[in-house]
Amino acid sequence: MKILAAGDLHGDTKRAQELADRAEKENVDYVVLCGDLTFAERSTEGIIGPFVKKGKKVIFVPGNHETFATADFLAELYGAKNLHGYSVKTKDQIGLFGCGGANIGLSQLSENEIFDTLKKGFENIKGLTKTIMVTHVHPSETKMDLFTQLPGSKGVTQAIKTFKPNILLCSHVHEAEGIEEMIGNTRVINVGKKGKIIEL
């Protein structure tokens, strides 16, 4: 299975189109968007649509620049899957589960709420051998913390250690785009605006 993952588009429709073109060229199975799709909710058009027009399945979580209501609206409008508190099982028996929002911003959650939301999503896929966790905010106690004043999430870190996903996809810290590291056996990737192709 091949995924194109990206985040922090902040209403950049040109970048969304470039990523959609890449998704088509690379023949990805899924597009995963890690939040902050809009800029303070002022730019919802042309962000998910380009991927749908290419016939790609879109899975996303909201960031701290859009509300959960806006995320639900976008999911319904485009037939995309809002992964916040939910999970998706692919035909390859790979499970994705997620939590949007962050510990700051429009969709602010407490660390307990972040963990509980991820737990809720994980429940339906916990028997699968490969799982991918999708968040907007980065985990605490990571290299990403060195690039920002934005606090990493202890709830995300707790979820990694508890549910042991194969991969965590996140964004949030623009300066840490492209950084990869390991927490236990979990590959943590800040996918950023440029996007990242992941093959499983």
Plain-language structure description:
Helix content is 26%, strand content 24%. The chain is an alpha/beta fold and 200 residues long. The chain has a six-stranded mixed β-sheet with strand order 5-6-7-8-10-9. Strands 4-3-2-1-11 form a five-stranded mixed β-sheet, covered by helices on one side. A hairpin with a 2-residue loop joins β9 and β10. The relative contact order is 0.18.
Q: Which structural traits does this protein have?
A:
single chain; 200 residues; alpha/beta; six-stranded mixed sheet; five-stranded mixed sheet; 5 helices; 11 strands; 26% helix; globular
Please describe the topology of this protein.
Blueprint: E1 2-6, H1 13-25, E2 30-33, H2 49-53, E3 57-60, H3 68-78, E4 81-82, E5 87-89, E6 94-99, H4 111-122, E7 130-135, H5 154-163, E8 167-170, E9 180-183, E10 186-190, E11 196-199
Helix pairs in contact: 4-5
